Amino acid sequence: MVGKETAYIMINCEVGYEEAIIEQLRSIECVKEVQGVLGNFDILVKIEVPSVEALREILTWKIRKIQKIRCTTTVICTKDGRSDEGAIC
Length: 89
Prior knowledge:
Distance between the termini: 27 Å
Number of strands: 4
Strand content: 25-35%
Shape: globular
Number of helices: 2
């Protein structure tokens, strides 16, 4: 996939629905890894998409539409471990 964007999505969900949500997440094509985790979040998802716009679409119309997800936090990875030149954070 040329121009691939990688992001991690941390999900909080309602208690007892983790496994059902994990199964639904695994059915989404661009989801590469899904893990149940302990701590501030319940589920960690690795996603690879062709663009940031595609990431926005997947988050809005597929992941956030899954029942019993309370909220998501997304971390977009930089290419080669560094930010783009001229980017303002």
